[in-house]
Amino acid sequence: MATAVITGGTDGIGRALADEYLRHGFEVLVIGRDERKGRAFTDAGERARFVSADLSSVAENRRLAEHIAGQYPSLDVLVLGARYHRSNRVLTADGFESSFALFYLSRFLLSHGLVGPLGRAEKPVVLNFGGAGQTGPVRWDDLQLEHGYHGVRAMGHAGRLNDLLGVDFADTYADTGIRYVLNHPGVVVTSFAGEYDPVTAEQVDHLRITGKPVATAVAQILPFLGATGEGQNGEAQGGLTAVLEGHRVPLEPGVWNLGEARRLRDLTRDLLAQADRRLA
C-alpha cells in the first residue's frame, strides 16, 4: 500500500492533503502536537494514523525518522508542512531559534533521515513548503536571527533556507529518483498557528478575509506531486521543482545556487554537532 507522511498534517493544507491521499487509497500518517486534532484525523478511516511529536526538538525528529523508517520500509510521499509563528524570538531546549528549528532544521533532519524508505518507493516525492525563490538572501552572519529579529522575517528567512535544502537534497540524491518539490502556496486561510504581537495579529485578521481557500492551494500543488492521479508536472525521475501558487518557478542559478546550498548543509551539520556536544 502506498504511504504518505505529513508533518503539520492535523490542520490547514496539511490536513487537506492528508484527506486527499486517504481518498486515493494511501495509508497516511500525520504528525502534530494537538492530540485532539490527531484523534479527529484517525477517525477518518482505518488507514489514517497520527503520531504526536515536538518537531522543534532535534531528538524528536531523529526518533520520528527512526520510527517511520521502521514502520514503513517504503515511503511514497513526505510532506513537510509544520510551522509556527512567533513575534518574539524564542530558543528551543536545544538552543536553536524556534522558527529555524521547526521550519528548517526539522525538515533537514526528516528529509535526510528518510532517504532510505523514500528511495525504495516507485515514484517518491518530498513536498516542502519553502520560499520557492520568493524570499530574501540568507543572513550568513546571523543564521538564527539574533539581531533584529522579526517574526514574519524569520518565517521568510526559514523559507529561503528550505529552498537551499531542496537544492542540496536534489543534487546529493540525484540517483535515487526522489523528486523534491518546493511550494509557496501564497496567502491561504488556515489556522495561522502562532503567537502574535498586536500589529501582526491585526494583519493576520485581514489575511483571514483576503487569503485563498485551502482547497484552492491544494488543487494548485497536486499536479506537481503526481501520486494521486492528478497528473505529474514535476520531473519524471528525481530532481527539483519549485512552485509558486500553481506555477513552476524557473530555477535561475543566481537564486538556486548549489554552492550556497552546500554551504548551508555544512553549517547545519556543524550546528547539530555542536548541539549534540552541549547535550552530551
What's the story with the biggest beta sheet? Answer: 8 strands, mixed
- Total separate domains: 1
Rough shape?
globular
Q: How are the strands ordered across the major sheet?
A: 3-2-1-4-6-7-9-10
**Mean residue pLDDT:** 92
Oligomer: single chain
Task: Compose a concise summary of this entry.
The protein has 280 residues and is α/β, with parallel strands linked by helices. The chain is built from 9 helices and 10 strands.
Element layout with pairings:
Elements: E1 3-7, H1 12-23, E2 27-32, H2 35-42, E3 48-52, H3 58-71, E4 77-80, E5 85-86, H4 98-113, H5 115-119, E6 125-128, H6 151-172, E7 179-184, E8 194-195, H7 198-210, H8 214-221, E9 239-244, E10 247-248, H9 258-279
Parallel strand pairs: 1-2, 1-4, 2-3, 4-6, 5-8, 6-7, 7-9
Antiparallel strand pairs: 9-10
Descriptive overview:
The protein has helices at residues 12-23, 35-42, 58-71, 98-113, 115-119, 151-172, 198-210, 214-221, 258-279; strands at 3-7, 27-32, 48-52, 77-80, 85-86, 125-128, 179-184, 194-195, 239-244, 247-248. Helices cover 43% and strands 15% of the residues. The protein has 280 residues and is an alpha/beta fold. It has one domain: NAD(P)-binding Rossmann-like Domain (Rossmann fold), CATH 3.40.50.
